[in-house]
């Protein structure tokens, strides 16, 4: 968010500097809006066109691209606007150098003026604004990071989890709300299912009746 705001400010400042530059001196006291835009391709002449036929129209087009780029948060549009401004400025310098034989800078107002410097600075600010802006992908970059932190969707009923439940998402096959019954500690056979033959015998050996003592306690012979 902060990068978009800072980049937008730089881009708008660059577009404003580019649009205002044709109203200042470009060379030997001649205003930038006094150069025809087609002269940048054919050669510099002494004719003075109207505002819509001058180099101003190219900078207005760049300003429109800048505003659209700021509204849409498009780094590409802002960068194209910067290339347009710098491209036309450099192209003018080439044609002016061909017309004059060389480009000079003097303190008495002759030679290159502040209008050219303003156009060049505006183009540089536009490119810087495009670099600083995070654009849609940056704002969307946060949503992408949120997507990575978003938990996976739970699987459907065709892939149920097992019981006891694990840490994996998904429905469990245990549908009852009651707790799972725990097994008894005794793991042997059920006493009720055993027959009489399986019952415990007496602690002493069994003696047949005809071999045991008589009623008086004396052994039988």
The largest sheet has its strands arranged as 1-2
Ends apart, CA distance between termini: 118 Å
| Coarse morphology | rod-shaped
Poorly predicted runs are none
Question: How much helicity do the residues have?
Answer: 40-55%
Strand and helix order: HEEHHHHH
Task: Briefly note the structural class of the backbone.
Answer: mainly alpha
Outline the biggest β-sheet.
2 strands, antiparallel
Which percent range describes the beta-strand content?
A: under 5%
Oligomer: single chain
Beta strand count:
2
The whole-number mean of residue pLDDT values reads 77
Radius of gyration: 48 Å
Description:
The structure is a single chain. The chain is an all-alpha fold. It has 6 helices and 2 strands; from the N terminus they run H-E-E-H-H-H-H-H. The chain has a two-stranded antiparallel sheet. Strand 1 and strand 2 (30-31) form a beta hairpin. Helix 1 (2-20) runs parallel beside helix 4 (75-100) and helix 1 (2-20) packs antiparallel against helix 5 (114-132). The protein is rod-shaped. The mean pLDDT is 77.
């Amino acid at each position: 968010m902060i990068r978009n705001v800072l980049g937008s400010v730089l881009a708008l400042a660059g577009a404003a500097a580019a649009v205002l530059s044709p109203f200042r001196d470009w060379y030997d006291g001649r205003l930038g809006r006094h150069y025809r835009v087609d002269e940048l391709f054919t050669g510099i002449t002494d004719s003075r066109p109207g505002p819509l036929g001058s180099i101003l129209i190219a900078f207005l087009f760049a300003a429109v691209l800048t505003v659209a780029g700021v509204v849409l948060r498009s780094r590409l549009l802002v960068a194209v606007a910067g290339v347009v401004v710098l491209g036309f400025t450099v192209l003018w310098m080439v044609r002016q150098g061909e017309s004059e034989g060389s480009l000079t800078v003097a303190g008495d107002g002759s030679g290159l003026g502040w209008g050219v410097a303003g156009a060049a600075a505006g183009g540089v600010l536009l490119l810087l604004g495009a670099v600083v802006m995070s654009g849609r992908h940056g704002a969307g970059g946060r949503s992408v990071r949120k997507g990575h932190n978003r938990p996976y969707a739970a699987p459907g009923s065709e892939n149920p989890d097992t019981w006891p439940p694990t840490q994996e998402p998904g429905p469990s096959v245990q549908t009852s709300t009651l707790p799972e019954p725990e097994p008894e500690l005794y793991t042997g056979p059920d006493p009720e299912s055993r027959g009489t033959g399986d019952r415990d015998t007496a602690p002493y050996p069994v003696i047949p009746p005809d071999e045991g003592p008589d009623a008086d306690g004396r052994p039988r012979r």
